[in-house]
């Protein structure tokens, strides 16, 4: 006779997270009148689920496969890089899922953009493999969670150099489309040869993506360092904003709600759909993220309790960042 093994007891921290999340979900549920898409109904119930492919992850094959599997699993939204090939890969995955299960719900397709190059989700690691000593143990390759670094010995005069690792050179480096900017490689390089290259998504290309029928939403990352750059980006996109909008906002302390209200004022003239605040308790750091969920739930509970926040009707999402 097989005796089932009971699940491990919840830690006190886990109990606290569940209690806080439940209080927010049940205490802030929104009653909806009329017909709404199933994704909006999920938001109202507090059980909305989003697959995050990554704002900088651009491996089309992996994105396509993830989108296929998670569409079949029933997610409400798939978030991906604001890149035409990546958007095409997401839609291909969704279409294959629909061919397998014709009744499957089509998730929203959301593209992620930024208004400021200081947002850590929008960066890539970079280094010249010619600068890497051949006796290096390549810790960057080992620590990369996305398998985005590949270094191999080259050939010298037609002969492999494996027998003499101090001859020849390394080839390869960062596989750019797989790097999503976590930053784990930066501190482990013993020779300090790796750098992070930040960028801002081209608003013109983003505007073109938003005009497509198969793009449903946009997530705008803003760092909370002011609203000038957000205002500029919003002006550039305003002619294409006809879908769901989402603002990603980190915890910036006591000024968080003031910033939310300022952003709300900027966006209000162009409201045409459902709108969602994404509350990140901790900015992306590249580590395992221990405790990040607790911080996120705590941040959401704090904002939800404040009467000065933007008007009711803006949705609040909890995300482990």
From TrEMBL:
<protein>
    <recommendedName>
        <fullName>4Fe-4S ferredoxin-type domain-containing protein</fullName>
    </recommendedName>
</protein>
<dbReference type="Pfam" id="PF25160">
    <property type="entry name" value="LdpA_Fe-S-bd"/>
</dbReference>
<feature type="domain" description="4Fe-4S ferredoxin-type">
    <location>
        <begin position="170"/>
        <end position="199"/>
    </location>
</feature>
<dbReference type="InterPro" id="IPR021039">
    <property type="entry name" value="Fe-S-bd_prot_LdpA_C"/>
</dbReference>
<keyword id="KW-0479">Metal-binding</keyword>
<dbReference type="InterPro" id="IPR017896">
    <property type="entry name" value="4Fe4S_Fe-S-bd"/>
</dbReference>
<dbReference type="InterPro" id="IPR057431">
    <property type="entry name" value="LdpA_Fe-S-bd"/>
</dbReference>
<keyword id="KW-0411">Iron-sulfur</keyword>
<feature type="domain" description="4Fe-4S ferredoxin-type">
    <location>
        <begin position="123"/>
        <end position="154"/>
    </location>
</feature>
<dbReference type="Pfam" id="PF12617">
    <property type="entry name" value="LdpA_C"/>
</dbReference>
<keyword id="KW-0408">Iron</keyword>
<dbReference type="InterPro" id="IPR017900">
    <property type="entry name" value="4Fe4S_Fe_S_CS"/>
</dbReference>
<dbReference type="GO" id="GO:0051539">
    <property type="term" value="F:4 iron, 4 sulfur cluster binding"/>
</dbReference>
<dbReference type="InterPro" id="IPR050157">
    <property type="entry name" value="PSI_iron-sulfur_center"/>
</dbReference>
<dbReference type="GO" id="GO:0046872">
    <property type="term" value="F:metal ion binding"/>
</dbReference>
<keyword id="KW-0004">4Fe-4S</keyword>
